[in-house]
Design a protein that fits this description.
This protein has 215 residues and is an alpha+beta fold. Helices cover 38% and strands 12% of the residues. It is built from 8 helices and 5 strands. A hairpin with a 7-residue loop joins strand 4 and strand 5. The longest helix is centred in the middle third of the chain and has 19 residues.
């Protein structure tokens, strides 16, 4: 079994599942609603589907499809301290974290001991691949989006990310020398409380661009 637990807030001490959305995946059919951003644990489902592609393309049970002998199941827990729809790229960053954690968990099944936390310290090539994978996850989730939030969460520090106007995307990332003092003196974050789905916002921008709206 694969159990997904999406917490609505950061746990204060130990993980509290009292307000969690719990989804149990027993077969590929349980992933069928992952393209609805409002479906329970939709983002986590898309991450599972990305890492376990064979499961999605078949109708076998999770156990028969990929879990090695002796492994009873997998539980994925996620939470965010940011408000939903805050516009800070939470879903992209969360997807990157879940994908990296799944990679470590699946790698540990072939080891006699757990994978250490240092395994999640990715090199440049692994970070680039993770950025691409998050793009695929967001397309699967139908929330669209670009690569800016992915790069912002996966590559540490201040940076400038660019890509030529062609497919497939080839993203280049340049670090920017910028200390906390400089950022604090030039940047102000204001949370208005307005919540909007990135998918809806992007569709509106594209529609107005096609219509050549004056504003």
């Amino acid at each position: 079994l694969i159990t997904l637990r999406a917490l609505t807030r950061k746990p204060t001490r130990k993980i509290d599942d009292s307000d969690a959305v719990v989804v149990v995946l027993r077969s590929a059919r349980d992933l069928a609603d992952r393209r609805d951003p409002h479906a329970p644990a939709a983002l986590l489902k898309c991450c599972v589907a990305r890492r376990l592609a064979d499961l999605v393309s078949s109708q076998t049970t999770c156990e028969a499809s990929w879990l090695p002998a002796g492994v009873g199941g997998l539980e994925v827990r996620s939470w965010s301290a940011l408000p939903r729809g805050s516009g800070l790229g939470t879903s992209s960053i969360l997807a990157a974290c879940v994908l990296a954690a799944l990679d470590a968990a699946l790698a540990s099944t072939s080891r006699s001991s757990p994978v250490p936390n240092s395994t999640l310290c990715l090199d440049a090539a692994a970070r680039a691949a993770l950025v691409d994978d998050v793009c695929v996850v967001e397309q699967d989730l139908t929330t669209a989006g670009g690569f800016q939030d992915n790069v912002g969460g996966v590559v540490p520090g201040a940076k400038v990310a660019r890509s030529a106007a062609r497919l497939p995307l080839r993203i280049s990332v340049e670090p920017v020398a910028c200390g906390p003092t400089v950022v604090a003196s030039h940047l102000v974050l204001v949370y208005t409380g307005a919540v909007r789905l990135a998918k809806t916002l992007l569709e509106s921008v594209v529609r107005r661009w096609h219509g050549r709206a004056a504003d």
